[in-house]
Amino acid sequence: MIDTVAQSAYKNYLYIEGAGKSIYYSLNYERQCYGNDLLKINARLGTSFLIYDKYYESLLTINYGLSVLYGSTAHKIEIGLGQTYAFLENPSPHLVYIKNTDNSKDPQQYKFENTKALQTYLDTQKYANNEDFRKLNYAVLNTVWSAYMLNTFSAGYRWVPNTSKFFLSANAILFFFPINIANSTALMQTTNFITTKNIYLHFGIGAGIKF
Known about the structure:
elongated; single chain; disordered N terminus; mainly beta
């Protein structure tokens, strides 16, 4: 059995969370800033990276915040405040520049909603039925990364037994979106997560170790 006195000295938490504050998943580190037998305050930093289709659209997230754990036993109420930054690759319509073999003409521009739309078009056309694509010399795809800030409030339960280094957590999370993000069609299409509402309810489940 692990010494409960030694357990109380553990101030670090490392855990993985499914869904949660980084939308799909995150790897998180917490450090206890204040603690007694009843109340603990932890600072959190977490991140995730996801390539979610074969066309390499990517989502990078960074989340940080404070969590308050309340309870004198292994069963604790958890309340948290924080922010999540979502960095999206190519959330805007792509600009594809087509240069004609006749250099006397300016390159023409074509817009596609995302990389998948572009690739589907190229696969379908095969350059056979389009005069501009038959003249194709090269195409440059502009890769764009855009950052969005999401405010978070979470409430839930954390099981932190004194007899083990392992712990479990479950939370309900409210995301508060600025208006420009809530109305971003590109962000909605990219994540399949964000709605036109400014407040969105999400959930997360986590497991990790303390040391």
